[in-house]
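Morning run. Coffee first, then this:
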Amino acid sequence: MSGSAGLKAAGAYSKTARKGSNCSDAERIDNAGPAGHRQQVAEARPTERLLEELRSELRRVIRGKDASLDLVLVGVLAGGHVLLEDVPGVGKTTLAKALAAAMSMDFARVQFTPDLLPTDILGSNVLDPQKGTFTFHTGPVFTQVLLADEINRASPRTQSALLEAMSEGQATVDGATRKLPAPFFVIATQNPVDFQGTYPLPEAQLDRFLLRIQLGYPDEVHELEVLSSRRTEDPLKGVKPVASAADVLRLQEEVRNVHIEPNVARYLLRVVRETRDQKSLILGASTRGALALSRAAQARALMSRRSFVSPDDVRSLAEAVIAHRLLLAPEARYGGKDARQIIRECVDRVPVPT
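And here it is:
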């Protein structure tokens, strides 16, 4: 939805619900911003320019995937983590490197393999034989942008080493907890689970990813552009650092200030709760999933130059935010259904606020 269309739609759901002492779940999702937040963001020009510059740098590297690139930026602005799932060779790793370069933040890459150990990610205490003491050697997780490449090729034990880092921004090794740099952003790539030598990510790990995104193959026009441009240049070398860590932290703070009307929060919650009543699912979306959808919707609203969340933000993001958190029943899986199809059906069943 465009900014002007969003303003017109705002009138249909801008009445603020009365809050009592016992707040509903939907009201807890609502960030209780003032009514004045429903106007177009007045001072959006610096933010708008920064976001457009980030978009431009990413689009120079990944051609014809503007919607997917915007989802990645939603993940960054929302302070979440992104899982890129697709077949090999469509630009997942290149996108991660371009994002880190455009934000001029510290970057580290871990190539996940079956023999990778948790200490290879977190770091370890190493004995100094001369001093007779242990010194902690930091692992690659102590960075700002971590590329977890082909994460589903490592064992579940190693995959779980990222849980604390992703959820709390810290890492504990041998009983000592150390804070990670801020902002901290994991962009993981994985091949489809039916590829040889892969391990499905456990539900607890999947739930830490704000979004799961598929890039897919480019269309013929954009693929031809890639073939032509890659003959003479490495696109990553041309990525300009247009943002900084401080810029990202500022944008994340702006996202937290985006207002969610109580009736839009209830709409969001009903979409999430609809997933819990499906016979085709063993596990529906959790409260963490509802909070993730709320924060992602705030980020999308900011990117659309609005200071309020619209129902369209919720509808547009539900699949990318919720689908990977759902656990299909065997009969649904054998019947050819997938989680994306089910969440789309859930969204269609919930009435949009009017």
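The chain has a mean pLDDT of 84. Good start to the day.
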